[in-house]
């Protein structure tokens, strides 16, 4: 399940950033290494993930996940259990 979850998340992110999912996987820790991952795209990613997984993030979760995407994945896992 975790591997599929990661793939789903990477796919969502890659669609918004218009890049290969392998680039997402390679640079997931720091969004600064990914082209186009700015604050606007971060919000788009958050909204799409909320829609796809039928979850809601708090403001704090949104802010803290912008610098470390592993935190974002941790939040998603916690919310879908």
Structure commentary:
The chain is mostly helical and 81 residues long. The protein has a single domain (2-80), classed as Orthogonal Bundle (Non-ribosomal Peptide Synthetase Peptidyl Carrier Protein, Chain A). 68% of the residues lie in helices and 0% in strands. It is built from five helices and no strands. Helix 1 packs across helix 3 (39-53). It is globular and about 30 Å long. It starts with a helix and ends with a helix. The mean pLDDT is 85.
| Overall mean pLDDT | 85
Anisotropy-based shape: globular
What CATH architecture label applies?
Answer: Orthogonal Bundle
Q: Main beta sheet: strand number and arrangement?
A: none
Helical residue percent band: 55-70%
Q: How many helices in DSSP terms?
A: 5
Radius of gyration (CA) equals: 11 Å
What is the CATH topology descriptor? Non-ribosomal Peptide Synthetase Peptidyl Carrier Protein, Chain A
Work out the number of β strands.
0
Overall number of structural domains: 1
Helix and strand sequence = HHHHH
Kindly name the structural category.
Answer: mainly alpha
Low-confidence stretches: none
- Termini separation: 11 Å
CATH class division: Mainly Alpha
- Work out the strand percent: under 5%
CATH superfamily: ACP-like
